[in-house]
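User: Hey, quick favor. My workstation is busy. Could you predict this chain's structure for me?
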Amino acid sequence: MPIRFRCAYCSQLMGISRRKAGTVVRCPKCAGEIIVPGGEEPEPPESPAEQQAGPQAFDDPNIGQVFEQSASVETPAVADFTPRQAPIAAMPPETAPPSLESPPPPKRAGLFIPMGMLVVSLGVIVLLLILMFVIGLIIGRATMIPPERKSAAASYPCRSFSGNVRNPQHSA
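Assistant: No problem, here it is.
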């Protein structure tokens, strides 16, 4: 039966064989490294009262005795517990231990914008390109020479001369 546990980073439920207990594995979702917990065996009941308790424990007429037996089991008293502290010696400032705070993460170079802002910006750019295309069509049609004028202009020969070109029809 496999060991089932969750990733400490992304809470992905994973299952792995018992022989991998205690080894380091990678999470398939976030690629984080996790130590596989040891295969925990189910704990046996602690007292005979718990052994007697079954699915019909509350239907039993002797239920009071079960609770009295579990209440009579001695539990260790919790004494005033004061943790022992090692004497703190005054350390000179040059040999003081480094602070436990981690330095802030370095800032990434570049320009970063949210995904929503990027989508809106690209949408506006596409709309502006479409608008410029439509305006170009309108201006092009407004300044276009009509077809009847174009054919009349093409039927007249060009009579201008440039440079040192001689026209055989005109004699000098």
